[in-house]
Design a protein that fits this description.
single chain, alpha+beta, six-stranded mixed sheet, 5 helices
Length: 139
């Protein structure tokens, strides 16, 4: 049986990814950055408001998490299903939030593909219905 301490230091790909989701949900950007490799490549899907590829842990949190916090209330990625194949972790999840400008909610399914090596996330790619996100941002 693993303990909380084991989970906190585990290099198992699914554990690393789960720590990233927990840090994100808690708004703990320092803990989130600790899950990312120095040369991480984090890609937000074309058509998503923050579309692009960001590098470095600081680049990811500044250009993604901090921006989401400026535009949305309670932005959360609810991870529910993990599919693990070696270094690859695919997570099926749901984004929920309320857009600050329009007061419209978003509730959309999403898939995330992570590559984890040496206990750190080296690559991330997002798949989401960007039209639903943009609809929530449109008055």
């Amino acid at each position: 049986m693993s303990t909380t301490a084991d989970f906190a230091t585990s290099t198992a790909p699914a554990d690393v990814v789960r720590r990233q989701y927990l840090a994100s949900a808690a708004g703990d950007l320092e803990a989130l950055r600790a899950t990312l490799a120095p040369d991480v490549e984090w890609t937000e899907m074309a058509g998503f408001p923050l579309a692009g590829t960001y590098r470095t842990p600081d680049g990811v949190t500044a250009n993604v998490m901090e921006q989401l916090g400026k535009e949305w209330d309670d932005w959360t990625a609810h991870d529910d299903t993990y599919v693990v194949d070696g270094d690859n972790v695919v997570v099926l999840a749901r984004y929920t939030a309320t857009n600050k400008a329009t007061d419209k909610p978003v509730d959309v399914r999403v898939a995330h593909h992570f590559v984890v090596r040496g206990g750190l996330i080296v690559r991330f790619e997002q798949f989401v219905d960007t039209a639903l996100v943009r609809d929530a941002m449109t008055a």
